[in-house]
Amino acid sequence: MNNNEEPVVPVKKARKIKNEILIREKKVKGEAHINHKGRVIEAKKVGPDCKCKRYKCFSVITEDKREQILKEFYAIPTKNLQDSGGALFLKTPKPPLKLKTLRMYKISIEDPNIALIRKSYSGPWGRCWIRNKTQIPTEFAMTPSYAGPININPLKTKSLIDLCPTLSKVENRAFYESFMQNREEQPSQNTEIDSEENSSGCEKRDYPRSEKIQKAIHIFCMALWRKWKVSHGFISRFMQKNIEWLNEEFITSGTVQCTPSGLGSAGRGRPKLLFAEASQQTKRRREQQIVESTGKEELFVAAQMKLHSCGNRNAAVVVHKVTNSPKISSDPLISSLRVLPSRQSDSINKDVILLLESPEMSSDEEIESD
To answer: How far is CA 121 from CA 99, 218, 364, in A?
Structure first.
């Protein structure tokens, strides 16, 4: 090869465009093309007669359709459904999503023509214009339809308000406050009681509730907490799922069962003390009916069994020996209990002294001594 000859430059070949790129460009422009399966796809039609089932990008919303959209939007019960479903009325249907994906739509409050999109539960919110580019009326930026008062049975509302302080769940505070706002009258803090004919003296006073009523309140509160937990903290969802339960009549019973004294119902005055806190004279007066209807031997056996069941076995043995052994006298035992009360306080109950000092025991000892 001579040095004067110029080097031959190879011809530059044109870059080949993949068929997928051409199909994508024609698809975006709406032109006719052949897809990768060899099927002929016709061009898109522009206007209200668009037959594109996948995107409907060029559909036109008329006045009649806009009124229909507003009517359906106002019929949505809750604000959350309005936020998620309102964009679906305005935005056209989307292609089927892949597995494990999610898209959430929400209309922007600042500009109703902009939709907020979040692709996952924890992902960030993105902004995009609504596809059909139509002017959305300002009625979409309205107050929630459930902002009005909620119709709840007044008896159920009053009972729920009275039971709110008994619950220990902190996350239900918003639920209780919503009920507090819906009540008309301020209920009394005391427990409701039945009619005066069926109520006793202790029911008219502000006494602590019995174990039975406390258990019933605990069961009701747990049921209320479970229903609120199932509703995921939404008052509208709670109303929809428990509408029959809320419409039922519900009255919390405030009746406290008292032991009848046999001397008639007590009138107004000082509250009755418990049996353990009462004086000896009061105890004898209350147990007068039992003493008159029960024999002496039965009372001794009952006292022995009760002391044994409570753990006072020494006291039960003393009662058994004194009542069943005629040779044993109760005088030395009483004197020893009075002289050494500190040593015998743990083993012998004080009720044994009262039993030994009873007039029936003294009369029996006199007979035996004779």
So the answer is: 15, 36, 87
What is the distance between the alpha carbons of residues 64 and 76, in angstroms, rounded to a whole number?
Answer: 19
DSSP β-ladder status, 40-41 and 104-107: unpaired
CB 182: neighbour CB atoms within 10 A?
Answer: 15
The four Cα atoms 51, 56, 57, 59 give a dihedral, to 10 degrees, of: 70
- Whole-number Å distance between alpha carbons of 309 and 134: 85
Whether residue 266 is contained in a domain is answered as: no
One-letter identity of residue 27? K
Last-in-domain residue among 247, 272, 296 = 247
Residue 106 lies in a domain: yes
Q: How many domains does the chain have?
A: 4
Q: What is the pLDDT of residues 104-130, one digit of tens each?
A: 556 666 665 666 666 665 667 776 665
Residues 126 and 180 both lie in one domain: no
Residue-wise pLDDT for 56-66, tens only, equals: 444 455 677 66
pTM of the model: 0.22
Per-residue CA distances from 130 to 87, 106, 298, 316, 333 (Å)? 8, 11, 91, 89, 99
* Residue 148 resides in a domain: no
